[in-house]
Automatic annotation (TrEMBL):
Residues 201-433 form the Glycosyl transferase CAP10 domain. It comes from Aaosphaeria arxii CBS 175.79. It comes from the Eukaryota. PANTHER family: GLYCOSYL TRANSFERASE CAP10 DOMAIN-CONTAINING PROTEIN (PTHR12203:SF107), KDEL LYS-ASP-GLU-LEU CONTAINING - RELATED (PTHR12203). The chain crosses the membrane at residues 21-40. This is Glycosyl transferase CAP10 domain-containing protein. The keyword Endoplasmic reticulum does not apply. Coiled coil: none annotated. InterPro entries: CAP10, O-Glucosyltr/Glycosyltrsf_90. Keywords: Membrane, Transmembrane, Transmembrane helix.
């Protein structure tokens, strides 16, 4: 019996040792994977071990597919500007000889184009607005109850337009970056409202917008900077950078556009460097952006590099948007979601080389990767074909010049102008009104036992909100109630 017991104990001990070994190995593997991911996503080292690259997550990118933009008539109509006259509702546009046509030098900074002029000047710009409106028509109108059914999350603002005035109703801003972006969006919208033609009053609407890169509640009817193809409930707005962006060598968008034009007078196409340039922070999208660095490493056509902001020599690595205009080719790579740098790159008379995009911005429908109106070059998301594409562009300089010229004509001189931005905002408000509720300016407020009622005005006018100090703007109205009043 004792011999049998000893054998059983040995077997049990052997099984325990095996389980312990397997458990320890699994724990070691998990620790290795976690450490590898943390190192790979946070490291500024341009070269990583192959094994670390293999375990890097793709983040929010669904790399098996990309968004396909289909807008068959946008650029064709922009070139001819003929189809929209037949549908014009404003008969003051005039006869064939007197028809209004968008002229960049005259109209690019005209924030007050009327609705017909907006549609004549910017066909295709409002595609995503129409898509969102049609989606909402199927689902049913946005009600006050629906808009109040979810709490504001990081970077969100609830606002209202009433009798042509912009009101801030509620904010949830967690840091100064949130605050700056929200103020820029409000400023852009306010400019579009106040510049509207007198004969076309702005509708009363109430809405929620977010300035976060990643939509926290993509199934809600929220105005947002970018969306994925599956985020059908979101409505796209121009991003904060169209007002201004407090970053090195940026500032107001129109200021950067002016500098890009001036750069061309001293550095025309033939004097540009025949290389592909890119600068960015790789940790924003480590798998995607490291693929770009790997594909360009050691190539004669490459000036692709990262900006490691934490290093003392980051200024030597940095290249501002206008400095990048000195290159014939500019690479584009998405970040945590979309990349706000694309619109600045499209101000240059250069060939934009972008991977297949997954995040849609309001003007992306005008991007064309093939045909005579091609205005950028598309490569695979892993940049596996980048070298072949660059060799082809370098071998056919006339093709590259045509693409660069098309980009300027499409974006810098039309769809990214201040006039286009104002038109987009007003069209967004109009279509949102068609599928949403009528807001009220005053709320009923019970006093005492509820027998006496009076009305209380909702929110605060934009002009006043802009004067609030930093803490008061962050979580309005809660933060306003907590802030002490400062008297004379």
């Amino acid at each position: 019996m004792r011999v049998v017991e000893k054998m059983l104990l040995r077997r049990r001990a052997g099984r325990t040792d095996t389980l312990t070994y397997l458990l320890a190995s699994a724990c070691a593997l998990i620790v290795f994977l976690v450490c590898s991911i943390l190192y790979g996503t946070r490291s500024d080292n341009p070269s990583l071990p192959t094994l670390v690259k293999e375990v890097l997550p793709a983040g929010r990118c669904l790399c098996q597919y990309s968004t396909v933009f289909t807008c068959d008539t946008c650029l064709d109509c922009a070139a001819s500007q003929s189809a929209f006259y037949e549908n014009a509702t404003n008969h003051n546009i005039g006869s064939e000889e007197e028809r209004w046509v968008f002229q960049y030098s005259r109209d690019s900074h005209n924030y007050g184009l009327d609705e017909d002029q907006c549609h004549v000047a910017f066909p295709g710009l409002f595609e995503d607005i129409e898509r969102a409106k049609n989606q909402r028509t199927v689902l049913g109108k946005v009600t006050e109850r629906l808009l109040s059914s979810f709490n504001l999350s990081k970077g969100m603002v609830r606002a209202m337009i009433y009798n042509g005035e912009l009101y801030v109703l509620q904010t949830y801003l967690v840091d100064n970056v949130n605050r700056q972006k929200a103020l820029a969006v409000l400023a852009s919208l306010h400019r579009a409202i106040t510049s509207a033609p007198v004969q076309a009053p702005i509708e009363n609407v109430e809405f929620v917008f977010s300035v976060e890169d990643l939509p926290a509640q993509p199934n809600k009817p929220i105005w947002t900077l970018a969306r994925r193809a599956q985020d059908t409930s979101l409505w796209l707005i121009p991003d904060f950078g169209f007002w201004s962006w407090d970053m090195p060598d940026l500032g107001t968008f129109s200021e950067v556009a002016d500098e890009a034009r001036q750069r061309e007078t001293v550095e025309p196409w033939d004097s540009k460097r025949e290389r592909l340039v890119w600068r960015g922070k790789i940790s924003f999208a480590p798998k995607l952006r490291r693929a770009l660095l790997d594909a360009a490493r050691g190539k004669s056509w490459s000036d692709v590099g990262q900006v490691a902001w934490s290093t003392p020599n980051y200024k030597d690595q940095f290249l501002g948007p206008v400095d990048q205009c000195g290159y014939m080719f500019i690479a584009h790579a998405e970040g945590r979601s979309y990349s706000g740098a694309l619109k600045y790159r499209q101000l240059c008379r250069s060939v934009i080389v972008s991977h297949k995009l997954q995040w849609i911005q309001h003007h992306h429908y005008l991007m064309r990767a093939t045909g005579p109106l091609q205005n950028y070059v598309e490569v695979e998301r892993d940049f596996s074909d980048l070298n072949n594409v660059m060799q082809d562009l370098l071998a056919h300089p006339e093709k590259a010049k045509r693409i660069a010229d098309n980009s300027v004509q499409t974006f810098r001189e039309r769809y990214l102008t201040p006039a286009a931005e104002a038109c987009y905002w007003r069209e967004l408000v109009k279509k949102w009104k068609e599928v949403s509720f009528d807001p009220v300016l005053y709320d009923g407020v019970e006093i005492g036992d509820g027998r006496l009622k009076r009305t209380q005005k909702r929110g605060v006018r934009y002009e006043t909100f802009m004067l609030y100090e930093y803490p008061k703007q962050m979580e309005y109205p809660k933060s306003a109630e907590m802030s002490p009043a400062i008297g004379p």
